[in-house]
Amino acid sequence: MRKPVFIVVILACLLLTLVTIKVRGQSTTVQNPASAAADDVTAAFKSEAFNEHRVSHAAQPSGDFNFGQQPAHSSHFSFGNNDWHAAPAQEINGSMVYMVANSHIDTQWNWTVQDTIRQWVPRTFFDNFKLFEQFPDYKFNFEGVIHYMFFKEYHPEAWPKLQAYVAQGRWKLAGSWIDAVDTNIPSPESLMRQALYGKRFFKHEFGHASEDIYLPDCFGFGYALPSIAAHSGFRSFSTQKLTWGGAIPSPFAVGRWQGVDGSTLIASLRGGNYVAKVRSNPTSNEYWGGELTNIGDGKRVGFRYFGVGDQGGAPDETSVAWVEKGLHEPQGTLRIRNTSADQLAKDLSAQEIAALPVYNGELVMKTHGVGCYTSQAAMKMWNRRNEQLADAAERASVAAEYINGTPYPRERLRESWTRFLYHQFHDDLTGTAIPQAYVFSWNDELISLNQFAHVDE
Predict the structure, then answer these.
(1) Segment 349-382, tens digit of pLDDT
(2) Is 423 helix (H, G, I), strand (E, B) or coil?
(3) Second label for 16, Cα 20 to 30 Å away, from 95, 161, 363, 448?
(4) Beta strands of 194-328 (E only): which ranges?
(5) What whole-number distance in Å separates Cα of residue 122 and Cα of residue 115?
(6) Strand partners, 103
(7) Where are the domains of the chain?
(8) Which whole-number Å values give the CA distances from 339 to 87, 93, 137, 281, in the listed order?
(9) Where are the beta strands (DSSP E) in 189-240?
(10) According to the CATH classification, is domain 83-364 in 3.30.70.890?
(11) CA–CA gap between residue 124 and residue 144 (Å, rounded)
(12) CA distance readout (Å), 74 to 53, 66, 203, 387
């Protein structure tokens, strides 16, 4: 008969702090269950199977995730630097603006996740597929791993087509988090897990993940974010939200944002309106080339979004046509690149990065979204309880494996984490969504709590 979990945990705390034990053929000193859990998560991220995730939210508010499992295979994926997929850098000459085609989806806001699955997700993918057929040089950038999960679940016949476009470099992966989440309420561990599970899915499905945090529409960014991002293997960060009313004036258009431990990200802080339309040749338009940053040797760089927001879709044909014209018929000295949000960081040389301005501090808002941090208190409570219970469940599971031989429930834990991580979305956890949305949110939060609480069963 299986030992009660609390007894196992007590024994683990006594034994694992005192002895060196043999684990899977290797001698490993385990200081406590927490460090063992961290080691197990890291090992899983590096070498465990990248599992196909399936989501069943469209039909009814039960919110029953069904994360399918696939046979394990070896992977060389690393939680740190993404050297396994270092996209080729392109030399920057003169004045260069990186134009990022955007389609932002609010997973829940003035609608529920049902609307996102039924309308916003499919039209984003299929509308951009049509643009690929019309414009041979068009490249599209899309974030939110949960949206990819939804698309694969409900449109499996189109999944190979998406994989082909990604392989061709036309569909650009962005923001390798489960979703574009708020960064102020979730714990640092949650933000790490956003990267852990988001990168896992991208790597399994497409062979690589993006190297950026992509948050054009979040409500401010804490001082710890660059450090969390850097230790999650990200190089860059982009937003435009600070222009909506930052407590601190945006320190630069493109520069280095430094975190609490000295880690830095290449940050694009004035990406312009993420629903901007292009109505003239961008190489001769002041808006697109108006905020350039010097990087030395007479070179300057800029970063601009264009596209649609909130309900997904694709940039309009006129915008894409003008971007292609700017690529092939530049006017004056400005040049553009229609590419991914993380390409700028890849293209900058060490010398050019050193020339960028540096900001050391937080980037929070004062006139947008501030009231959300006291809204929907129940949602915030369930989220925090899940963070705490997830930690306890993992500690108990590690102890149970070492002491009792109980198999570590890796798949169940990943399923439970992912279920509530996507509800950290910046209009969901923050409390700015319509009341109907929280039927789904609370349901998923409670399901995850139940799964964590019974992880040993």
Answers:
(1) 999 999 999 999 999 998 877 788 889 999 999 9
(2) helix
(3) 448
(4) 212-214, 220-221, 236-238, 254-258, 264-268, 293-296, 299-308
(5) 10
(6) 308
(7) 83-364
(8) 12, 16, 10, 17
(9) 212-214, 220-221, 236-238
(10) no
(11) 12
(12) 18, 23, 12, 29
